[in-house]
Design a protein that fits this description.
Chain lengths: 240, 238
């Protein structure tokens, strides 16, 4: 479903991605792990072109995302993204956060968008918080609203950029729970994460990245129990 | 200053208001309240129209300054640099006596509004730019990741948040603009300061006349700051 060919990305002289190749299938949950600065987040952000790659191609369902004439706004509607720092719209209520894109982009009626949004807020366990502003929510609640906001566009793929990294430890579980449900429903997901437990339990495949290179990939069992690459071994020995 | 009574009279005489009526300067102010009122009204008119021009120009110049197109950016920078870098007083004189007559036949009031509006636009541009850039970068990314165009993200996400940020500096700018309209008295626009000048010239009651002018300016600027506080409260989300 998602094909990445020889992806290169530099910030100035710093080469962050040094030729990434991968193939992600429909309904697959891929967890990307690796040390800080390894290019995990940049890789994810290149997929919906929040970062422009200098070289290489990305295809989604056969459509080239990286083409200069690609309709990136339409393509992004099919890719939900969840950020480390939530990035909820602070001047809008949780309900408005979720309904804004369907109303403004898909020209959905407010009634229909509200219906869908309330359903999604219930799904992430925040059905009673629809008229609250983000500033009144905890970190875990904010991230769950952010997931509902991304889902409101009915995306084919969900991209998670370290969704639990800025949460207090006791709030990590509630967010991972929502993501787990999503995975069980068959959502295609790419998750950049430091939650090894989640990667092992929910991920179908795990990518280990280091220094801008996709060092090793395999099933959670292969990566966590029997890593082949010395870099992977060394990283896992530090975090597990 | 001889107020025309002794201390004993002050204590044992008539009320303070009665006494005030015997003071010439006070009478000058009271008798000329309609003139002060008209002057203040004209000050307010010039300010309101200048703000309107300044806001439109400021928004255009702010977007121009952030534009990636070099020509547009240079024009915006040149405009901001000139009107921020030279005195408003000189700009008023240059526009009224020099530039505007070449273009059309403008009244002093029209010239005053154009000069103040152009000047204010330069400051407003920088205020708006600061406001837009103060909105967290993640907001634009979140909006774009949902599939919004750059324009949609600006309108629905960035501008509303920037607006909240710029209210205090904008009100500050409007207050300064209101006070700076006093400079247009130099081209015989009969606004509040001009009213003061005329009245002072015919009565020499400096403290009373200029004191009254201050009170009128203060009432107007205070009203502006109350308006700002009210707007901020209305937009609060906590």
């Amino acid at each position: 479903m998602i094909v990445v060919n020889n992806l290169h990305k530099s910030f100035g002289k710093l080469e962050v991605l040094k030729g990434i190749d991968c193939h992600i299938h429909q309904k697959e949950v891929v967890c990307v792990i690796g040390p800080s600065g390894s290019g995990k987040s940049t890789f994810l952000r290149c997929i919906n072109r929040l970062e422009e790659a200098q070289q290489g191609k990305i295809f989604i369902d056969g459509e080239e995302v990286t083409a200069p004439n690609a309709d990136i706004n339409r393509i992004r509607q099919e890719m939900g993204m969840v950020f480390q720092l939530f990035n909820l719209f602070p001047h809008k209520t949780t309900l408005e956060n979720v309904t804004l894109a369907p109303i403004k982009i898909k020209k959905m009626s407010k009634e229909k968008a509200d219906d869908i949004a309330i359903g999604l807020l219930r799904k992430v366990g925040l059905g009673d918080k629809d008229h609250v502003f983000p500033s009144q929510l905890s970190g875990g609640q904010k991230q769950r609203v952010a997931i509902a906001r991304a889902l409101a566009m009915q995306p084919k793929v969900m991209l998670f950029d370290e969704p639990t990294s800025s949460l207090d430890p006791e709030m990590v579980g509630e967010v991972l729970e929502v993501m787990k449900d999503l995975a069980h429903e068959g959502m295609t997901m790419i998750v950049v994460t430091h939650e090894m437990g989640f990667a092992r339990e929910v991920g179908h495949r795990v990518f280990f990245m280091d220094e801008g290179i996709l060092m090793e990939e395999g099933t959670p069992a292969q990566i966590f129990d029997n890593p082949q690459n010395p870099r992977t071994q060394s990283f896992l020995s530090k975090v597990l | 200053m001889n107020l025309g009574f002794t201390n004993t009279e002050w204590i044992f005489g008539t009320t303070i208001i009665d006494r005030l009526h015997e003071i010439y300067g006070f009478q000058v102010v009271v008798n000329n309240l309609p003139n002060f009122g008209m002057g203040a009204w004209l000050t307010l008119e010039i300010t309101v129209f200048s703000i309107a021009i300044g806001m439109v120009l400021g928004l255009i110049a702010a977007l121009g300054r952030m534009s990636k197109i070099k020509v547009i950016k240079s024009i915006a920078v040149a405009y901001i640099d000139f009107f921020r870098g030279t005195p408003l007083f000189v700009q008023i004189l240059l526009l009224y006596f020099g530039i505007i007559p070449l273009i059309f036949d403008a009244s002093p009031i029209q010239s005053a509004i154009i000069a103040c509006g152009l000047n204010s636009g330069a400051y407003v541009a920088e205020i708006i730019r600061a406001g837009i850039q103060a909105v967290d970068k993640g907001q634009m990314e979140a909006a774009r990741s949902l599939g919004m165009t750059h324009g949609q993200a600006m309108i629905h996400i960035i501008f509303p948040q920037a607006f909240k940020i710029v209210i205090p500096p904008l009100i500050n700018e409007f207050i300064m603009l209101l006070k700076d309209t006093s400079l247009v008295s130099a081209i015989s626009v009969g606004e509040l300061t001009h009213t003061g000048k005329m009245l002072y010239a015919s009565t020499y009651q400096a403290v009373w006349v200029w004191g009254a002018v201050c009170v009128f300016y203060f009432i107007m600027t205070k009203a502006l700051s109350i308006l700002g506080d009210w707007t901020e409260r209305r937009l609060a989300t906590e």
